[in-house]
Amino acid sequence: MTKPRPEIASTGLPPAFPNRAAWGTAKRLRAWQEAALQQYFSTVPRDFLAAATPGAGKTSFALTLAANLLSRRQIDRIIIVAPTEHLKTQWAEAAHKIGISIDPSFGTKQGRTSRDFVGIALTYAGVAMNPLGLRIRTEAFKTLVILDEVHHAGDALSW
């Protein structure tokens, strides 16, 4: 007997955000994105790795997952970790397009962000500045952590 497929809400992000999607595909997820979302929601893993080529749509996948988890109240917060300042801002802008407010100027020394934000974006170097504070922040709420270009996590042994 097969499990019923969980309903996945669409975010409307192009499947390869920030790049433009092929004509006529902007509102549809790519097959791998849909399959990965189905796999995630059928297994509900603690850790999940989405490995895809550059431009394949990892950002759109991760934000679609985040939007669905938020709407189902399975998470309360989001932490996005990226290798550069530019990428963390890009993540916040992409999230904003689908109604998820991410604070890209969060500083680990302040420890807090405005209640207007559901999440924060920071660099791996930012994580290395206060790993204990971020661990406490992550464990205090049901938190989705998105590690962009996770191979950079070992650069400073930050995450």
Note down, in words, how this protein is organized:
The protein is α/β, with parallel strands linked by helices and 159 residues long. It has a single domain (31-154), classed as P-loop containing nucleotide triphosphate hydrolases (Rossmann fold, 3-Layer(aba) Sandwich), CATH 3.40.50.300. Helix content is 35%, strand content 11%. It contains 5 helices and 4 strands. Strands 2-3-1-4 form a 4-stranded parallel beta sheet, sandwiched between helices. Helix 1 (31-43) packs parallel to helix 2. The model has no long low-confidence stretch (mean pLDDT 83).
Shape designation: globular
Low-confidence stretches: none
User: What is the CATH superfamily label?
Assistant: P-loop containing nucleotide triphosphate hydrolases
What is the average of the pLDDT values? 83
Indicate the proportion of strand residues: 5-15%
The counted number of beta strands is: 4
Overview in brief:
The chain has 159 residues and is of the alpha/beta class. The chain has a single domain, classed as 3-Layer(aba) Sandwich (Rossmann fold), CATH 3.40.50.300.
Task: Looking at this protein, list some descriptive labels.
159 residues; alpha/beta; Rossmann fold; four-stranded parallel sheet; 5 helices; 35% helix
Topology:
Layout: H1 31-43, H2 58-71, E1 77-82, H3 85-97, E2 102-103, E3 119-123, H4 124-129, H5 131-140, E4 143-147
Parallel strand pairs: 1-3, 1-4, 2-3
Helix pairs in contact: 1-2
